[in-house]
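Hey,

Quick one before I head out. I ran the complex with LCNEECSX overnight. Inputs first:
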Amino acid sequence: MFVPAIKGQGTEEQQKKWLPLAYKFQIIGCYAQTELGHGSNVQGLETTATFDPMTDEFVIHSPTLTSSKWWPGGLGKASTHAVVYARLITEGKDYGIHGFIVQLRSLEDHSPLPGVTLGDIGGKFGSGAYNSMDNGVLRFDHVRIPRDQMLMRLSQVTREGKYVQSDVPKQLLYGTMVYVRQSIVADASKALSRAVCIAVRYSAIRKQFGSQDGGPETQVLNYRTQQSRLFPLLASAYAFRFVGDWLNWLYTDVTQKLEVKDYSTLQEAHACTAGLKAVTTSATADAIEECRKLCGGHGYLNSSGLPELFAVYVPACTYEGDNVVLLLQVARILMKTVSQLTSGKQPVGTMAYMGKVQHLMQSKCAVKTAEDWLNPAFIQEAFEARALRMAVNCAQNIGQASNQEEGFYERSPDLLEAAVAHIQLIIVTKFIEKVHQDIPGHGVKEQLQNLCNVYALYTLHKHLGDFLATGSLTPKQGALANEQLGKLYAQVRPNAVALVDAFNYTDHYLGSVLGRYDGNVYPALYEEAWKDPLNETVVPEGYHEYLRPLLKQQLKLSRL
Ligand SMILES: CCCCCCCC/C=C\CCCCCCCCCCC/C=C/C(=O)SCCNC(=O)CCNC(=O)[C@H](O)C(C)(C)COP(=O)(O)OP(=O)(O)OC[C@H]1O[C@@H](n2cnc3c(N)ncnc32)[C@H](O)[C@@H]1OP(=O)(O)O
Ligand SMILES: Cc1cc2nc3c(=O)[nH]c(=O)nc-3n(C[C@H](O)[C@H](O)[C@H](O)COP(=O)(O)OP(=O)(O)OC[C@H]3O[C@@H](n4cnc5c(N)ncnc54)[C@H](O)[C@@H]3O)c2cc1C
């Protein structure tokens, strides 16, 4: 995040000076934005950067305990420098949050520079899983930096202390977060596909019940309940991969437009990165835990690879923007778009479907049979109608409040659901678009088509209440979707293992005795147990101190 911050907010001169140092690890940087008292509310940050025209320097200061920087990854032990976000004060006026490059530690002996207090914030969730990352705390006591270490692409402070705003939107200050959020979506697919690969392979090996005439028991993968829990997660791993690829394209496109001062797609980039980051990370965190349960007792062992994956993954729901806060950003943009519909302004990009408001508010889903749900046009329209109607309902309810802000506050739980519906529509749309493309490999397209339908119909089934409450579907059509879903699971089953093998993960990368490619699960589990440090001694360390006195007492009593 240090590098993208300098790239996005630094002038060419600043990039030339700092980036080569960072690339060669001659300096190590971190992104110091969040404070003890404020993370989500960036405008609420308290650290100050006051310009001193006498010396041509900024004075970086932490005025309160709550202004201590808190969480930056790499800050605790490794970083020599940070991009610090602070309130810029010049000529007695507070100009809000800006980025500054600040050296924290000596390049000679790594000791903190004068006026800098720093350290690690302590152990984190999951007994050490994420503790290889040194998340830090940082306080400044009037630390001076040269004026040219303010990141000056978006705004400048002159030698005399005049504040000059460039003609670019101030939201570009948040560009680093947009960049990382888009990469987190693709990473969600990676983490989810790892968990699903472990659970599918193990479910093909694990057998319980169902033996007839002394024959083999049933592979748990053949149980309908196992399939209905696991295959939607498999489909989600593919769905997030495709939407992640698309988001990466969108981000690249926006960046190219920004270079020629075209800011028209900035809002779209913000809404899509924020919303997709929120929906995919929440779904992935839940799915990793579901995969643990799908692997039964053995899933709870560290050697399954799932506990560590979960512990490392769950903070993704919080870092780079708390998921609820991000979805409320999407909801704000949805409400803005709905309010502009009456003025004739045509929504664009992923909001374009809202332009069909007249049709979608009244349309009746034409599905009559379970097979009808295989028609992507029906799926697409059902998701569009649900998302639009939820957004319009929210807008109408907000409109009845005494003022907009109050209405938004009161309706925020509904707004959250409307934002999720809009984002799920994007995921479904991008999956449908993907399977319409030329896909090489015999039968591959058909498999992806199945997964696309599983993702869409499972999402529909899970959120059926939304579809019914908005009148987008009838209860009968909801039941038909569920019927079709069951048939799709049966079609996915023969290829389930191949569909996870296709992720092409090595055993080393998976780090799971349950997810081994060769399926040799039981010998591996048995062998792994003997590696437990508790098994280094036959008689445990505490035996003489704690167990023996108890056992001897019992022995004495039994002899009486
Ligand atoms: C063996 C090992 C096993 C384990 C292995 C595990 C392997 C697992 C596999 C994968 C793991 C995944 C790994 C992923 C790796 C990724 C790296 C992650 C690193 C994490 C580091 C974390 C870093 C951080 O967290 S940095 C700090 C992040 N902080 C935040 O996100 C703060 C959130 N808050 C905000 O963004 C803002 O405060 C806000 C947007 C909520 C509100 O801002 P405000 O200024 O108050 O603005 P507001 O009034 O709401 O809006 C004003 C207008 O601005 C528009 N707008 C807002 N934001 C943006 C934007 N970003 N871009 C463009 N426009 C924006 C908004 O829409 C408003 O527009 P309007 O037109 O005026 O209405
Ligand atoms: C592992 C990890 C790594 C991190 N790395 C970095 C880093 O490198 N650099 C950095 O600067 N930061 C980093 N962070 C900090 C991270 O960005 C913040 O923790 C995150 O943005 C959430 O902010 P918060 O902690 O203030 O949560 P809060 O905003 O305090 O959230 C608490 C609760 O309040 C709710 N809430 C907050 N505001 C609203 C609202 N307006 N409406 C409704 N509900 C609301 C949230 O949904 C949540 O349930 C990291 C955090 C973690 C966990």
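The mean pLDDT is 96.

Talk tomorrow,
K.
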